[in-house]
Amino acid sequence: MSEIVLQVDRLTKRYGSLVAVNDLSLEVHEGEVFGFLGPNGAGKTTSINMMCGLLRPDSGRVLVHGDPITGGSADIRARVGVCPQEVTLWSKLTCIEQVEFIGQMYDVPGRVARQRGERLLEELDLIDKRDKQAHTLSGGMKRRLNLVMALVHDPDIVVLDEPEAGLDPQSRVKVREYIQSLARHKTIILTTHNMDEAERIADRVAIIDQGELLVLDTPEALKNSIGEGDVVEIALDGEEDMRTRYSASLQEQMGAQAIVQAADGTLTVHARDVVNLLPAIIDELNKTGLKPTGMHLRESTLEDVFIQLTGRRLRE
Amino acid sequence: MRIWSVFVKSLREQSRDLLVLGLTLVFAPLFVLIYWLWFPSGSTTYTVLVINKDQGVELDDGTTWSAADEAIQAIESVTYADGNPMLTVKPVAGRNEAEKALRDRSGLVFIDFSEDFSRTVQAIRQGSTSLSVPLTFGGDLTNPYYPVAAILATGAVDHYVQVTTDHQPLVTYLEEPLGASGTRNEFEIYVPGLLVMGAILLIFQASMAVAREVEAGTLRRLQITRVSAFELMAGTTAVLMLVSIVATLLTYLTAVALGFHSQGPLWLAVVISMVTTFSIIGIGLVMACFARTVAQAFVVANFPFAFLLFFSGTAFPLPRMTMFTIAGQGIALNDLLPPTHAAIALNKIFTLGAGFGDVLYELIALTVLSLLYFAVGVWLFQRTHLRAEG
């Protein structure tokens, strides 16, 4: 097992009566991409703000390489690079000027910051905007520059809060590839409510909801935890109680070989060889009088894990 | 090193915000120009409303002599040292017309010459020592210009009557102006106040510069770097100081070009202005600690702005409320406001020809207040904006 670079120990944060993060404990290992998955308002941003020293926890602590980050030395804080969800740039400074400036704030010599900044701008396809002021950039370019700002001081740990949010498809692919390339030599912690993003990038995923850590494991292990196999989704026309009865009857018939759930007018059946179970599913459906309006067969995802854990979809 | 980086970054931002930079640089010079245009003769000319009911008297040679006409000429002949008129006469038909003009402020004082004004003057001239010349005057006593206009106009009539009747005044007044105060015109009197007001206005820019970082979220980015509150404040302040130096020099050049003369050394006035600016920026930084947006910073800064302008003696003189005395120097409540010392020091230099030693107390007070406000600003900034949120 590689070295623990960041340790979260019983972290709790309250805002009045709302518990934003409740007794969160986890460890992040050197060189891994650690994903925080959860719906909006789950406590992801609050958690990472405490992890990088921007927010003081009510209780608990965060250790970076064994040293506390809150109230700790600037050296410890400098080992973490943060790319916030909001674009935070100096609108009147050019790309290279702000990269150089933020580097200098971490005591990176001006020349080094400039060279490093140019390399990062090159890597994120921003080099031709080197001398353009930030306010003239498109939204996608600003988000990429936001990412460059987190890296110019060459931190060990990079914290990315919703790095793909607000990006056009082209920029999303670019940023995703770049994060994967970074993962070869840095530890990355990213928050997302995009299961696809987490599944593609993260080595381990922590699913968080209402401030509580629900599960933490590799994406594969999490998906296996709800049973190996695929998923069939059938959109159904009819009364809610009819769908519920159908779901219960199908579950009874399938027994342990499948997990059947009904939500939002959709029946979801998760099973190892789900294709071979389709005739039986349709037979049972014909008996109920419910009419299928669509059918979709797919591999199971982290969203299925979330639904299994909470009974809700991630985007609810 | 980090201070220098913050300075360069702030300078770049400032130089690219041409509207704000332009307004900051031209504000005080523009006001100097406007005041100069406001007083074409350098000072105010007070309008005297004259109701002339005097019937005059027939002299031995058969001609009619009007003492009121001569008294009116005496009023019109009152001038400043440079020969420009202090009073201008506006004839009105009666009391109603005079009161309307007073209400409209198209006149400052009325003088009512009675029907027997000439007859009485003539009688005194011919030896009737028991008589007194009747003269009615009045105006809006809440108008700050009224007392000046009333004293000047009635004084002119009084002097005319004494000369005409060959009577010696009971008291002979000899006025001795302090320094060059006797030769200063109103435009020159306003210049120090305009300079201090230009410095006070920087409170908005100082507080808004910091609030802009908070509102844009860039301060959160800086919060986890190695930069300290002192470095951020010092770098930001240095740029504002640079801008204010240019603005102050432009103001002086404009004033001098329009005829302003300083009795004392101009470099000393510039130094006073600089230290005043530093203290105002310090107060602006303190205000920024109570704001999270530029709009909030603007609203919050209005509060000290009003105090600094109206309670320091910059806008108009205020009595000192001495609280205690240190080494013979009375310390008043408004001494906590840097413009109080700046207004006194600049007046000493410009009008009274004061040198370095004469304004040393004000310079020390300004420096101490500047350092105090800057230190409070840094401390508050560290606690409110640079610490991890609680």
Any overview of this molecule?
The complex is a heterodimer of chains A (316) and B (390). Chain A contains 11 helices and 14 strands. Chain A is elongated and about 75 Å long. The two termini of chain A are 36 Å apart. In chain A, helix 3 (95-105) packs across helix 4. Chain A has helices spanning 44-51, 74-77, 95-105, 110-123, 139-151, 169-182, 195-201, 219-225, 240-254, 274-288, 302-310; strands at residues 4-15, 18-29, 33-37, 59-64, 67-68, 80-83, 157-161, 187-192, 204-209, 212-217, 230-237, 258-263, 266-271, 291-299. Chain B is an alpha/beta fold and 390 residues long. In chain B, strand 2 (57-58) and strand 3 (64-65) form a beta hairpin. In chain B, helix 7 (186-200) runs antiparallel to helix 10, helix 10 (229-257) packs across helix 11 (266-288) and helix 11 (266-288) packs parallel to helix 14 (360-386). The longest helix of chain B is centred in the middle third of the chain and has 29 residues, at 229-257. The mean pLDDT of chain B is 91.
SSE blueprint:
The complex is a heterodimer of chains A (about 325) and B (about 400).
Chain A: E1 4-15, E2 18-29, E3 33-37, H1 44-51, E4 59-64, E5 67-68, H2 74-77, E6 80-83, H3 95-105, H4 110-123, H5 139-151, E7 157-161, H6 169-182, E8 187-192, H7 195-201, E9 204-209, E10 212-217, H8 219-225, E11 230-237, H9 240-254, E12 258-263, E13 266-271, H10 274-288, E14 291-299, H11 302-310
Parallel strand pairs in A: 3-8, 3-9, 6-7, 7-8
Antiparallel strand pairs in A: 1-2, 1-4, 4-5, 9-10, 11-13, 11-14, 12-13
Helix pairs in contact in A: 3-4, 9-10
Chain B: H1 2-16, H2 18-38, E1 46-52, E2 57-58, E3 64-65, H3 67-76, E4 87-92, H4 95-103, E5 109-113, H5 117-125, E6 135-138, H6 146-164, H7 186-200, H8 202-216, H9 218-223, H10 229-257, H11 266-288, H12 294-310, E7 322-326, E8 329-332, H13 338-352, H14 360-386
Helix pairs in contact in B: 1-10, 2-7, 2-10, 3-6, 7-10, 7-11, 7-13, 8-10, 8-11, 8-12, 10-11, 11-12, 11-13, 11-14, 13-14
